[in-house]
Amino acid sequence: MPGVFIVLEGGEGSGKSTQARLLYTRLMQEGALPLLLHEPGGTALGEQVRRLLMAERGGGQQRRQGGIEPLTELLLFSAARAELVNKVLHPALEEGRTVICDRFTPSTVAYQGYGRGLPLDTIATLNTLATGGLWADLIVLLDMAPEEALGRVAAQQSLLEVTEKAGERGGRQDEEGLRRFEQEPMTFHRKVRQGYLEQAAADPGRWLLVDGGLPPEHIAEVIWGRVEGLLNRPAP
Ligand SMILES: Nc1ncnc2c1ncn2[C@@H]1O[C@H](COP(=O)(O)OP(=O)(O)OP(=O)(O)O)[C@@H](O)[C@H]1O
Ligand SMILES: [Mg+2]
Q1: What is the pLDDT of residues 185-196, one digit of tens each?
Q2: Closest CA to 182 of 64, 1, 11
Q3: Which of 13, 20, 105, 161 could form a disulfide with 127 if both were Cys (CB 3.0 to 4.6 A apart)?
Q4: Could you tell me where the DSSP H helices lie in the chain?
């Protein structure tokens, strides 16, 4: 039986990585063999694309100052995704593993489509090409006002700076967030949120909309309620 595929989505700082880790731990406790992935990344090429996108800041606003073109950005994310799906994700699902992915195709629709304004049909075509039509069984949307979520990221960053200055050995580093879109204006983040909400509304059976402002343990319980049902689903 093919494994269950779960995707976590939401804006910067909405709690995707926190929930991905909590779900991974829970699945381990239940004796499942989960696999935790993030986008872009998870393959040698994907990690290189991630580093490239982190180094090449800007895009929308700073494009005129040499940032990456929105179409180039879309193609880079898609290239990393094609590697991940074909080399890692698909084989893991075929082995029956439960795969958690921190961002997937809905991010491309929200950021490059609604945020950057690239045509949604182009994005749909590229997403289908990169994934071979693979869809998640469950997409969790951690919905939050961007002002609030970005405030969390800023607090996290200043905490990291303080611990670094204090010279803590092996000082903490946040290597998870892409930190690519944070300097975009609030209008960009509002469009991204709208993009997520519209995708969720169009496919309510697959999406689980959660208030990202709730306590992490509370959110984890809501997510677990849905995941448990998927794990115990009858064979087709
Ligand atoms: N439900 C929550 N309530 C309060 N704080 C939270 C919650 N979830 C996560 N946080 C905190 O908010 C910050 C961002 O969380 P996290 O890194 O999980 O978000 P993210 O969606 O993965 O962000 P990014 O898009 O940058 O990768 C962290 O400092 C985390 O501890
Ligand atoms: Mg994250």
Answers
A1: 999 999 999 999
A2: 11
A3: 105
A4: 16-29, 44-55, 70-84, 90-94, 105-108, 120-131, 146-165, 186-202, 216-231
Nearest to 223 by CA among 1, 10, 20: 20
> What are the residues whose beta carbons fall under 8 Å from the beta carbon of 219, sequence distance 6 or more?
15, 19, 142, 210, 211, 212
Instruction: Mention every residue, 6+ apart, whose C-beta is less than 8 A from residue 129.
Output: 78, 82
Looking from the CA of 18 toward its CB, the CA atoms found within 13 Å total: 18
DSSP string, 50-66: HHHHHHS--STGGGGGT
pLDDT at 166: 67
User: Which residue from 56, 20, 25 is spatially nearest to 38, judged by alpha carbons?
Assistant: 20
Distance 159 CA to ligand 2 centre (A): 16
- Residue tagged 């991974």 (tokens): 24
- The residues lining ligand 1, judged by C-beta closer than 6 Å to any ligand atom, are 10, 12-18, 152-153, 156, 176-177, 214-216, 219
Domain ranges for the chain = 5-231
- Just give the CATH number of 5-231: 3.40.50.300
Q: Quote the CA–CA distance of 45 and 51 in Å, as a whole number.
A: 10
pLDDT tens by residue, 218-233: 999 999 999 999 998 7
In this prediction, residue 170 carries a pLDDT of: 43
Q: Is 145 exposed, middle or buried (0-12, 13-18, 19+ CB in 10 A)?
A: middle
State pTM to two decimals: 0.92
Q: 70 CA distance to ligand 1 centroid (A)?
A: 26
Whose structure tokens read 């696999």?
A: 35
